[in-house]
Every structure is written in C-alpha cells, then in structure tokens.
Amino acid sequence: MAGDVWFVVLPDGDSGSAAAWLLSPWATEAVAHHSGRPWVLGSWPDGYVTVGAAGARRLAVIGRCPVTAGELSARAGRVRDLADVERAARDLTGSFHLLASVDGRVRARGSASGVRRLFHARVGGAVVAADRADRLASAAASATGAGPGVDEGLLALHLLTSPLPYPLDERCVWRGVQGLRLHDCLLIEADGRARPRRWWTPPEAELTLSQGVPAVREALTTAVRACTAGGGTVSSDLSGGMDSTSLCFLTAHEQDRSRPEKARLVTLRWRSLDPDNDDDAWAAHATAMLPGVGHVTPSPHEWPLWYSGLTDLTGSTVPTDEPGPWVRDSARITTAARLMTARGSRLHMTGGGGDELFSALPPHLHDYVRSHPLAAFARLRAHRDSQHWPLWPLLRRLADRRTFAQWLAAWADSLTEPEPPPTTPSHRAPSTAWGVDLRMPSWATPDAVRAVQSLLREAAGTAEALAPRRGQHTALACVRNGGRGVRQLDHVFSREGLAYAAPYLDDQVLDAALAIRVSERSAPGRYKPVLAAAMDGIVPGSVLRRRTKGEYSVDFHHSLRHNRAALVELFDDSHLARAGLIDAAAVRTSLLGVHPTPDALRSLGPSLGSEIWLRTRAGNVRPPSPATTLGAP
C-alpha cells in the first residue's frame, strides 16, 4: 500500500467517540474497543496491525512484529489490568507500537529508540494519541476551527547543526501537540484524561564483551527474522560497511535454515564518485560471498546526486511531521524505493543504528579515566598515536567536571561562537563532553538564536542525563537521533509502498547491546568488536577484519557544485526568512562562495530540511512579532 500510514488511539468513552468523529474523514481503517466504541483509527496496509482479544481485554501491535492474532489473544488473556501489559508482551520481537484496552482504560507506547513514537493532544474534549504529530495537529485544530500552527521557537531549534539535542529532541514543532517521552507510555482514562508512566529503563552497562555477545547475536538474529517473517522478497542496503553487510549475511543465514517461509534477499549497492573510497571494493567482496542473493548496483546515471530534484519536491507534500536533514537524499530515496519494489521487495533494511550501538564515542574516555586510570592511559596513548590528538587540549577536556545541566547552560552561551580551530590543520582533540556543542548557522537571525538559547536554558533547569556517565548517555542520545531519522525515512519509503526497517534499533537489540560495558564497545586497533564477535561464524572473517570506513566528501562537494543554482533559487524565496528565522542573503553568500566553510556545509542540511518542510506547511507559521515568545531571553 502506497500513501500515508498513520493511526490514532482513542479513549473508551463518549469523548473518544467525539474525537473519532473529527478524525474519521481521514481514516480508512478502524479497530473497536470491546464496548464497540472506536479504539484505533487510521490508514495502514494489510498486516500492519495485529489485534488479540480475550473478553474485555484487547492488545494490539502496530508495525513489524511476527505475532499472530491467536498468539496475541492468548497474551491478552494473561492481562488483568494495565500493569500486566508489559509482562504479557515480553519477548515480542520487531519494531512496533504496543496498545492495550482493558476495562475501559487505554495504554499506548512506542519503542525505546524512537523509531516508533507517540504524540498526544486534546481533540474534542479527550486526549488522543497518534504516531503522526501533523495528523494530530490537524485534528486538534479542526476541533477549535483554527488552522494547525507551528511553534517558531522550536522550528528555530531545527536549524542547529544536527542532531537535535536531548531533551529538546522530544519537543514537537506543532502547537498544541506534545511528544511523549520515549521511555514513557500514555495511560488514557475513559473520560479522556491522560498521564504518562515510565515503561522502559536502559540496562546498566555491566557485562563484559564475552558475557554480552551471545545476547547481541540472538537479538540481532530475531530482529532480522522479524523482517523476513512471512516470506516474500526483502531488500537491504549493502554499502560495504560492517552494519549493512552483517544484516545481509544474517538474512542469507536465515534463508539457509529449514524454515517454512523463506524470504528472498535483494541487496542495493551504490558506488562513490571517489576512487579512493573502498566501500565499493568491500561491498563487491561481500557480494561474491552471497550466492543465491539478488544484487542491484545502479549505474551512475541511475543514482542521483545529493540535493537533486529539490525544486520538484517542494511542489508536493513531504510525508513527515517534522523537518529533517534527510531531504538532501530525496531523489535517492525515491530511486531506491523504485529499484527495490521493481524487484518485488516488500521491506527494505538499513544498517542505521549500528554505529550508535557498537562504536564507543570519545565521551567514554572521560568515564574510563575515572574508573580505570591505568588502562585508560594506555588507551589514550594508542588513540593519540593513531589519530594524532593534541595532548593538552585533550587533557583539559578530560578534566571537565560539569554536570549535564551545567553543560547545557554553557552550550546556550556558545551557540554563535565559531568552532575552535584544530591544533594542526587536520586534527583537533575530540569532545568528551555530554554531547556536541552544536552551533547555530551563520545565517540564523538574532531572534532565532535567542529562541534556541531560551530552550536550552529552560532545559538546563530541569533536565537529567539519560545515564549517570557520559559514555552511556552519549550512546543513548545517538540512538534516539538514529531512531528519529529512521522514523522519518520510514514515512517516506512507506509513501512509495515500501516498508523501512532498522533492525539494530529494535528494542531487544538495544537492551542486549547497551548492557555491555561502554569501554568494551571500542578498543584501539579493533573496529566494532562487539558486533564482530556477535557475527563470528555468520559473516565471513575476511569481511569482519575490515578496519576502514568509507568517506563521502568527494560525493558531497560534487553534488553541491552540480546543484548549487537550484539551492540558491530555493533560498531566494525563503519561507524561513519570511518567518524571521534566517537571513536569506547570508545563505546565498555562503552557497556562492568559492569554498564554502565546513561550518556552513554542516549547517546546510538542517536549514534545507527546515526550508522545504516549511514550504509544505505554508500558512501554518507566523512571522515573529512582539506578541510572540520567539525573541524571549
């Protein structure tokens, strides 16, 4: 099924029926409570929603989960109240929303990574939950007779060099709509009142690599099995990197097993314009070791450059409910979906999430110095030898003792400061802070900067880190950002009639990978040691021994040069400028410069994504004025 896929969850009362009446013009599918009142409305393909019933109790999984209605009904029979729902759903695999209707009360939640998110708003007197914020904003607005509106301050946040920072990544750009925290579920009473309650807590990172690898292997196997369940044809990226390559070999491994419904695999491999990028050589090496698998390698004229076709894209509705830097890939996404559906694929897998889970970022060194100082010294020396980190800037960063809240507040003060120059022309000490001190683009207006500063300072007053230590906090923040991107791309691919899956971001994989000590997810001279150990015996050793990672700056600069005129044209009539968020002349100057600065190039994607998104929502954003809070200090 091509087109928008969405759903809303309604309370089991008269207020829910009133909300359903407002939402029904958009809906093509419905599921009822035991009472007969509408419970779930929306539009979705066959097999996307599975419902189990036992008396007055209902369970539903929405998304990718190989559970039958009969199995779900048996689980529903074990539910006595809403507190039993997670126990009844234990060991369900895949990526899905989980809903329950029990004796007139409703419980709904998404996934821990944010690939499956929930939003809520008051519609017709009741709190209603949905997986799409834009659909909910339209319904809430229709109930009041007003048009849906965009929060200008939160839209300014999307101009930051991505990723969006925690905890502001949970905020919704639509006025009147709230994003549910990823670790919370929403309890909705029959009278339409609702409250959040925590459902997920990340595991303690206590296991050694050898202790944790078996669970990672099993979790990844079941995640891929959830993609291939039901047979047919599935497809996967095969970039040459370890993440997507492992998924391809796992799928082929499942094909070799004696299973009643085997899925056929087709891979998608593309070539860089850079002859020194060895991704293609590694992808070709993997392809040769995957007999019986279909392979698609687009020729250069079939595979669009980044930033292609954006002037055409603005004439249609972009099927995402918030801005995203993925927009630069729009033409490639359409091409990938067309190539894979032409080969019969019903679901496409990506290796997204592998970097986030299996690569320990530099903040883990801050923790390691304090927990294992002698071992940390040896690791730091190895990193410095291989990556030429300057010593004194690194030591200063390792000595930093700021709390998460203090770091957020300091970040707000540095939003427009230039990036610190590297100590040498090509090297700088890595950040070991709670996150990356992202900057506002040089073309952001003072009002936009003040709006983001206000949001960061507000968050600093109440926010708590995702984990006590920086390494695990950073891993969780990166997982959330990866989940956000996959969620948006799932909307785009689904619009083309192809489901999109990131098995590394399934809940059971997160639980297994995050339970391993952060310091053991990385080691000098070893690339993704946890994933390599988990895939031993499934992925050939010659593939797992790769130590490099492809780099695409040549493709980026070539694409930018080729599409520069179209980008300038987009910003010549900028909706962001009309909203008072950017200086269009400054964007033009940056794009037309002989050598755009690295800071400008990093900022282009988020600004471009926000510009095109806003064009599809014309009329829903108001220019800043003294009456708005945009310029609040």
* Fraction of residues in β-strands: 5-15%
Low-confidence stretches: 422-426, 622-633
- N- and C-termini, Cα separation: 47 Å
Order of the strands making up the biggest sheet:
2-3-1-9-8-10
Radius of gyration: 24 Å
Mean pLDDT: 89
> What's the main sheet like?
6 strands, antiparallel
Structural class: alpha+beta
How much helix is in the residues?
A: 40-55%
What is the number of E strands?
17
**How large is the count of helical segments?**
24
Structure summary:
With 633 residues, the protein is of the alpha+beta class.
Structural summary, described in words:
The structure is a single chain. The longest helix has 26 residues, at 470-495. The chain starts with 5 loop residues before the first strand and ends in a 17-residue tail after the last helix. It contains 24 helices and 17 strands. Helix 6 (209-228) packs antiparallel against helix 18 and helix 15 runs antiparallel to helix 16. It is α+β, with helices and mostly antiparallel strands. It has a 6-stranded antiparallel beta sheet. The protein has a 6-stranded antiparallel beta sheet with strand order 4-5-6-7-11-12. A 5-stranded parallel beta sheet has the order 15-14-13-16-17, sandwiched between helices.
Highlighted features:
633 residues; 42% helix; globular; six-stranded antiparallel sheet; 17 strands; disordered C terminus; alpha+beta
